[in-house]
């Protein structure tokens, strides 16, 4: 269950990013079941520019909010929102909407 929980948290962050930002850096999450090099119950997040981070259940079990905050912060360090567009989604993520506005004022 804890492994599924971190997959859901990370997936939620990435869905929010994709629903809110158009033309941004591509980001992907790979769970341990799809990559035998990952520790059991881990998720690797990668960006198109080559950055990667691995989040394990041992580190993040039961810490959904902290994990969500960490993944968002990590992404902001490894993607560039300047020059992107707001996606035409009916449900943009408030965090990504605010981050986009900071990088694209006016």
Structural summary, described in words:
There is one protein chain. The chain is elongated. The chain has a 3-stranded antiparallel β-sheet. A two-stranded antiparallel ribbon has the order 1-5. The chain has helices at residues 2-20, 57-60, 64-78, 94-103, and strands at residues 21-22, 27-31, 42-47, 52-56, 85-86. The chain is built from 4 helices and 5 strands, in the order H-E-E-E-E-H-H-E-H. It is α+β, with helices and mostly antiparallel strands and 106 residues long.
The general outline is elongated
Q: What is the radius of gyration computed over CA atoms, rounded to a whole number of angstroms? A: 14 Å
Q: Give the N-to-C terminal Cα separation.
A: 44 Å
**Percent in strands:** 15-25%
Summing up helix and strand content along with how strands pair, one would put the structural category as alpha+beta
**Topology pattern, helix = H, strand = E:** HEEEEHHEH
- Biggest sheet: strands, sense, closure? 3 strands, antiparallel
Strand order of the largest sheet: 2-3-4
Low-confidence spans: pLDDT under 50, at least 5 residues?
none
Number of H/I helices: 4
What's the count of strands? Answer: 5
- Provide the residue-averaged pLDDT: 94
What level of helicity do the residues show? 40-55%
């Amino acid at each position: 269950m804890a492994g599924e929980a971190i997959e859901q948290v990370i997936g939620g962050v990435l869905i929010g990013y994709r629903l809110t930002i158009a033309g941004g850096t591509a980001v992907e999450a790979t769970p341990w079941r799809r990559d035998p090099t990952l520790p059991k119950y881990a998720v690797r997040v990668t960006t198109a520019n080559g950055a990667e981070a691995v989040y394990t259940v041992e580190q993040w079990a039961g810490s959904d909010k902290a994990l969500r905050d960490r993944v968002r912060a990590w992404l902001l360090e490894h993607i560039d929102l300047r020059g992107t567009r707001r996606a035409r989604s009916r449900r943009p993520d408030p965090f990504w909407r605010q981050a986009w506005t900071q990088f694209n004022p006016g």
